[in-house]
Amino acid sequence: MYLPPSLPERAELPFDDERYVFEPKIDGQRLLLSLENGTVRLYSRYGRDVTGLYPELSRVPVRDGSDLVLDGEVAMLEPDTGFPRYEDLQIRFRLRKELDIREASVRRPVHYFVFDVLRYRGRDLRSLPLAERKAILAEALDDNGVFNRLAFVRGGGRDVFESIRRIGLEGMVAKRADRPYVAGRTGDWLAIPNYRFANLRISGYRKDPFGWLVERDGEAEGVLDRNIPAAYRQAFQGIAKELATGEDRNFVYVKPAIEARVRYVRRTKAGRLWEPEFLGFVV
């Protein structure tokens, strides 16, 4: 049974508020799990059936064996740090051969971080406040190393975010404890990213779609193509010809004379910035 998920809106700063619970934001993919008459079905955020991708989630540790629908995030943890790594999950998600999937599920199983229960014992729980659904989830589901109930804190968002910032997790989600579960974006859930910041030099630009090549100390950092206002792009293009050093089919290369301020949430395994956002030129 697929139920459309509730989605967070983005917020910029952490806060304290007793009306909210605060959870770490897991660097993975949204996953809804349905257990009905002993059969497990897994669904992506958009309702795609992905049951065959994660056979290690076929045994749900429900204490009384009742039917239920869970909401959470599936992730792969780095063996050395225990932190989620989205790139590794992408590799797993792209597997299609059943033998490859079975081997991967044994060699390095995914982890399912459960933060909500939408149905239990034949009852639709979505009209209940989140605090009540959390209490039912704690009674219904055991942790077993693969299934993990996601930890949360009531009220103290700033302290939670500081812990997240200190250890380097992706961010935090704030949820109204007194609200029902509503599909889509309502403002009841807020995602607060743990941004890092950097000053990078522009060493070229991609022609189509437009994006700046950025570097630090001569090392490539990736392509900056998010949140670039038209006025900044036009200002850059106005002096790009004077700075140009070469060109190929896809890129124009320039002297790294212009510095940009960027923010980002994480780096790839190769050390590149993941989806950096432009904040302005450094003058």
UniProtKB/TrEMBL annotation:
Swiss-Prot/TrEMBL keywords: Ligase
Pfam families in the record: DNA_ligase_A_M
Keyword Ligase belongs to the record: yes
PROSITE patterns membership: DNA_LIGASE_A3 (PS50160)
Biological process according to GO: DNA recombination; DNA repair
Domain ATP-dependent DNA ligase family profile: 103-233
SUPFAM superfamilies linked: DNA ligase/mRNA capping enzyme, catalytic domain
Source domain of life: Bacteria
Listed transmembrane segments: none
GO molecular function: ATP binding; DNA ligase (ATP) activity
Keyword RNA-binding found: no
Homology family: Belongs to the ATP-dependent DNA ligase family.
Protein name, per record: ATP-dependent DNA ligase
Organism: Cohnella xylanilytica
